[in-house]
């Protein structure tokens, strides 16, 4: 299909002038959280670590402090914001394409298919913690749930957002029996070649996510946030953001401190520094995480509509190129920690990993600003739009008239 026919029928991509600036800011902040959690986590608990080294870092105030701050401020807040933003983007796209008389179903399903393929490449060749393919699969579920009434969407979204993860994990635990030894994972990680890892990883991933049921809790967790994001746009809350600033201020003043306190207590219970029951730390985290993410979101929107707008607007360029930045951070993560790259696992401390994450995020932020001064979209965003709309969109910006 030619670009001319797309434009004539109203199936042109959404332009930068149609964007909600608030969503770009939130997406940029979510990226920051993901960078920190992934890099600090890789140094401490996501990858194999010698027990003596783990104990040493646990006893070090600086190293334990880096892990503590990452868990308290960012763990599950970045992915909560990202998943909510995905649902918001879905509803924005649906409303705009249907208003133009375009075939939303064909365009959006093609968009999800393209994202799924990008995610598979990222997962099996570049970054073993990819979520893009899972977002795409759950995007199909969101698509088929779009006819839910607004109240049903809100209620189901809230239920899944708060109890979806523990419910899914419980069901997976009841349905799945037996385990494979993790020794092979440790062998491949410790000294395997890239080719060996690529050949072995798909089977292990399918075991963890499908056979062991690991995807079930995560899927319900994410789908709930998708639904809440779609509901937020459906109710016009972002389009009326300036009008709703007083309400957002009240929400922020409650959600931000409450979320911080709940997450702090949960973390201290998990560290066995406060008394707990078998489930209290998990329950507090499942409640406190989304509340703190809401506090972050409303706080950033308030700053965006204040005299601080210039500061928070620095997050917008990397938010507009979030797909490229996310894949880029995954490549950097694998190269830094895996033996086929620098093999820094066990040598890079959690505190150093946090500095690397912050530095890498700053570099992507500057690169995005430089890139968008010359191009309309990030490199992967451009390819994704091309696949979505079936025609090649304009890439370069027109030079300003003299």
Automatic annotation (TrEMBL):
This is DUF418 domain-containing protein. InterPro entries: Bact_Transport_Assoc, DUF418. The chain crosses the membrane at residues 25-45, 80-97, 109-128, 218-239, 251-271, 283-304, 325-345, 351-372. The keyword Transmembrane applies. It comes from Qipengyuania polymorpha. Keywords: Membrane, Transmembrane, Transmembrane helix. Residues 233-390 form the DUF418 domain.
């Amino acid at each position: 299909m030619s670009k001319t026919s797309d434009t004539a029928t109203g199936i042109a991509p959404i332009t930068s002038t149609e964007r909600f600036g608030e969503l770009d800011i939130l997406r940029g902040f979510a990226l920051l959280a993901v960078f920190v959690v992934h890099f600090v986590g890789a140094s401490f608990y996501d990858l194999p670590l010698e027990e003596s080294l783990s104990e040493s870092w646990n006893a070090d105030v600086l190293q334990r402090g880096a892990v503590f701050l990452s868990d308290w401020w960012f763990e599950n807040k970045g992915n909560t914001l990202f998943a909510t933003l995905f649902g918001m983007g879905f509803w924005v796209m649906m409303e705009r394409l249907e208003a133009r008389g375009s075939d939303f179903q064909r365009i959006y399903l093609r968009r999800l298919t393209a994202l799924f393929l990008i995610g598979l490449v990222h997962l099996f060749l570049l970054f073993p913690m990819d979520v893009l393919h899972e977002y795409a699969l759950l995007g199909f579920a969101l698509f088929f749930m779009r006819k839910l009434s607004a109240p049903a969407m809100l209620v189901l979204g809230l239920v899944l957002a708060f109890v979806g993860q523990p419910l899914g994990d419980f069901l997976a635990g009841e349905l799945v029996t037996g385990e494979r030894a993790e020794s092979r994972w440790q062998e491949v990680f410790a000294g395997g070649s890239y080719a060996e890892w690529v050949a072995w990883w798909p089977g292990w991933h399918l075991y963890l996510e499908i056979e062991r049921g690991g995807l079930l809790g995560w899927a319900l967790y994410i789908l709930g946030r998708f639904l809440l994001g779609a509901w937020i746009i459906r109710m016009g809350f972002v389009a009326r953001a300036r009008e709703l600033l007083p309400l957002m201020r009240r929400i922020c003043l409650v959600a931000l401190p409450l979320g911080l306190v709940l997450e702090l207590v949960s973390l201290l219970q998990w560290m066995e520094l406060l008394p707990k029951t078998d489930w209290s730390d998990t329950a507090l985290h499942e409640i406190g995480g989304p509340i703190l993410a809401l506090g972050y979101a409303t706080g950033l929107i308030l700053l965006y509509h204040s005299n601080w707008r210039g500061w928070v607007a620095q997050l917008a360029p990397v938010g507009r190129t979030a797909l490229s930045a996310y894949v880029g951070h995954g490549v950097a993560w694998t190269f830094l920690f895996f033996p086929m790259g620098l093999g820094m696992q066990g040598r890079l401390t959690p505190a150093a990993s946090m500095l690397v994450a912050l530095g890498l995020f700053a570099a992507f932020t500057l690169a995005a600003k430089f890139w968008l001064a010359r191009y309309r979209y990030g490199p992967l965003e451009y390819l994704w739009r091309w696949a979505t709309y079936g025609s090649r969109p304009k890439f370069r910006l027109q030079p300003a008239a003299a």
